[in-house]
Design a protein that fits this description.
By secondary structure, this protein is of the alpha/beta class. The protein has eight helices and eleven strands. Strands 1-3-2-4-5-6 form a six-stranded mixed sheet, with helices on both faces. A three-stranded mixed sheet has the order 7-11-10, with no helix packed on it. It has a two-stranded antiparallel sheet with strand order 8-9. The protein is globular and about 50 Å long.
């Protein structure tokens, strides 16, 4: 896990890390009880789908002077949490039964801390995600194929699950793909965790599908300071071959119910940058039309639109990878 890597490299901070976790757990109680259906935003036991999707929510919580991990007993925050899930739900729900846990995610404010001080808050978030995933595997999965999916902090949590759980063949062999969109995956990660495999085509399975969208001129973002590994969701290539906008089957912008408010076919083409590994979109996409919104991102970082720009291509790809998985297993 990333927290293990951090502690190994910074042994002098181990006591600080443990003390911070103890404070967080004291403030919020023990790991969330996922036997309780109210601990889940989605718990679709009765749906008839060929696969499952374990979906982890992106960051929706801003501390605003409060705790730096999201409380789970605030109905207003939980509605925002479910709303954010609904916005990406349609990518997966035609193919999968949906499972999405409420979890004590790290607040938006944590990203301003920078460095080792932020890790205890993400570690606490991961404890919930880990507990929910373990409970899902033991009580809900029943040997079914599944998709692991998350955006932004949700993608970070999914990658932590991949690092910890998926060197176990009995779990890995059920994985259709991990859609870890809007987070970085590095060569270091793959060397440290050799069971992690990046997607190399539209239909390979047991792999990580990841990309980060930005303008051609962008050379830094808070998510990708230097470089990342990824795949182009328009042509499903991992080199810098340009994919024309004609391959974009539909950018979709949804509301908090998941209803598509606007759909724009052929919104933009894209290619992978050879140096940064990020997904560069056409100049027709501008910060004026698609502002970063969050202060942590500069103009030209289209993090908030990662899955929205390529919604229909992702939706089609989930169905394709699931079909290929079922055909070959």
């Amino acid at each position: 896990m990333k927290q293990r890597r951090f502690l190994k490299n910074c042994p002098s901070l181990v006591l600080v890390f443990i003390f911070s976790i103890m404070l967080s757990v004291t403030a919020y109680g023990e790991t969330t009880d996922y036997q309780n259906p109210e601990s889940w935003a989605y718990l679709e036991r009765e749906e008839n789908r060929p696969a499952d999707c374990f979906l982890v929510c992106p960051t929706v919580y801003s501390a605003r002077g409060g705790s730096l991990n999201m409380p789970l007993d605030n109905p207003k925050i939980n509605r925002a949490f479910t709303g954010a899930l609904n916005m990406e739900r349609g990518i997966y729900s035609d193919t999968c039964r949906m499972y999405a846990p409420f979890y004590r995610q790290a607040a938006m404010d944590v990203y301003d801390i920078k460095g080792p001080g932020e890790e205890p808050y993400f570690a606490l978030a991961y404890e919930d995600v880990r507990a929910a995933f373990s409970w899902y595997l033991e009580h809900e999965n029943g040997g079914r194929p599944f998709v692991l999916a998350g955006f932004s902090q949700g993608a970070d949590m999914c990658l932590r699950l991949m690092e910890e759980f998926f060197d176990e063949p009995s779990i890995q062999e059920r994985l259709i793909a991990c859609y870890a969109i809007g987070w970085r995956v590095t060569d270091y990660d793959l060397k440290k965790y050799p069971h992690l495999k990046m997607a190399e085509s539209a239909s390979d399975t047991g792999v990580i599908v990841s990309f980060n969208t930005e303008s051609k001129s962008t050379d830094y973002s808070a998510i990708v300071p230097k470089s990342t590994l990824g795949i182009n969701p328009l042509n499903w290539r991992t080199d810098n071959t340009y994919a024309d906008a004609s391959l974009n089957k539909g950018a979709c912008f949804t509301d908090y119910s998941g209803t598509i408010q606007t759909e724009i076919p052929q919104l933009t083409g894209a290619y992978l940058d050879e140096t940064r590994g990020t997904l560069k979109v056409d100049d027709a996409i501008t910060p004026q039309d698609y502002p970063p919104t969050l202060s942590m991102f500069e103009d030209g970082v289209y993090h908030l639109y990662d899955y929205q720009f390529f919604y229909r291509n992702l939706q089609e790809n989930v169905a394709l990878r699931t079909s290929e998985f079922i055909k070959n297993n």
